[in-house]
Specification:
Order of helices and strands: EEHHEHHEEHHHHHHHHHEEE
Strand order of the largest sheet: 3-5-4
Strand content: 5-15%
CATH class of the largest domain: Mainly Alpha
Radius of gyration: 29 Å
Number of helices: 13
CATH topology of the largest domain: Serine Threonine Protein Phosphatase 5, Tetratricopeptide repeat
Distance between the termini: 64 Å
Number of strands: 8
Length: 325
């Protein structure tokens, strides 16, 4: 929080409860807050027997800290009413979230223009992660946090789309990389990043970003081979192996330099294509085909700590299951 060039931070308040109180009052600076509402935010998981008395003491301590850090005029920042506290409405206040909303609104009036791009960049600059992390566990703040994240995501994706249309792949790479740091579970952000890297000829980095995206989405959300990322993978493969007109060169690329007897491992998109082509060939010839799924599992006896490892094989003939072994 800044006032006339002087700054006070959560660390400067030396108290999580004071930080929660100040953050919540500033966020709701346009209204008075009842004691019960403030108590829910400040002592959410540790209720007190006399919230009115405890809050009165906390407000006194907050005013003291504000005056010490920002000067005597800060004594009037917080006002009290009948069973309520709030920000002094005679003192103007500007918050990041209000500026974020204003930038989003202005950008909507300038579709795909330099003015819109400037506003969208400002939204991305203002957003620093979860809203009010000091009080993010409160149900009153959680909904707002989800909303503001959605506003930021909408704006950053629109910004990235404009940059991609304009061919500004360097900035597109930087913005998408920061966005992934803030929200590593959004598939589209990985796609923007991969396309930006491919367009700049950074094919190795693009491949690494694709693998990271698939791994994170698989481990965190259980999404295997996301569709949009698979499309990006195919784009990457076209850049790595461009169309060849020389049949002899194609033959050289396809031939195996060294015959390998080990198992062939590939990502799901490659396996899917191989499987589909194999099925088409076998169906023409009338030959039966089988698809085994091998799963390896570890069962732990929590009483003894002993681990038992075993595998399960599910066998299918076309679409019909044969059995599990």
């Amino acid at each position: 929080m800044e006032s006339y060039g002087k700054v006070i931070t959560g660390r400067g308040l030396h108290s999580p409860k004071l930080t929660r109180l100040l953050a919540y009052i500033v966020y709701n600076h346009d209204r008075l807050l009842l004691v019960d509402e403030l108590a829910d935010v400040i002592w959410e998981n540790d209720p007190v027997s006399n919230p009115a008395g405890a809050l009165k003491n906390l407000v006194y301590r907050l005013r003291t800290e504000l005056v010490a850090a920002l000067g005597p005029e800060a004594e009037n920042f917080i006002v009290s009413g009948r069973g309520s506290y709030g920000w002094n409405t005679e003192i103007s206040v500007e918050t990041d979230v209000e500026e974020l909303e204003a930038c989003r609104g202005r950008a909507s009036f300038f579709p795909d223009s330099d003015a819109a791009l400037a506003e969208l960049r400002q939204v991305d600059k203002l957003y620093a992660g979860d809203f009010l992390p000091e009080v993010s566990t409160s149900f009153r703040i959680h909904a707002a946090s989800v909303y503001f994240k959605g506003v930021w995501l909408e704006c950053v994706k629109r910004c990235l789309t404009i940059l991609e249309i304009r061919g500004d792949y360097g900035e597109m790479e930087g913005i998408s990389s920061r966005a992934i740091d803030l929200d590593p579970l959004d598939e589209e952000l990985y796609c923007f990043s991969v396309r930006a890297l491919v367009a700049q000829g950074k094919l190795k980095l693009a491949g690494e970003q694709y693998v990271i995206g698939c791994s994170v989405l698989q481990s965190e959300l259980g999404i295997s081979a996301p569709r949009k990322l698979r499309d990006c993978y195919e784009l990457l493969q076209r850049e790595i192996h461009p169309a060849e007109n020389d049949i002899r060169h194609i033959k050289e690329l396809l031939s195996e330099e060294h015959k390998e007897s080990c198992t062939f491992f590939c990502e799901f998109g490659v396996f899917k294509r191989i499987y589909q082509l194999s099925v088409r060939s076998l169906e023409r010839s009338g030959i039966s085909y089988y698809l085994p799924l091998v799963s390896f599992m570890v069962e732990t006896n929590f009483e003894t700590g002993e681990e038992k490892k075993h595998g399960v094989i599910e066998l299918r003939n076309g679409a019909a299951p044969i059995g599990t072994f």
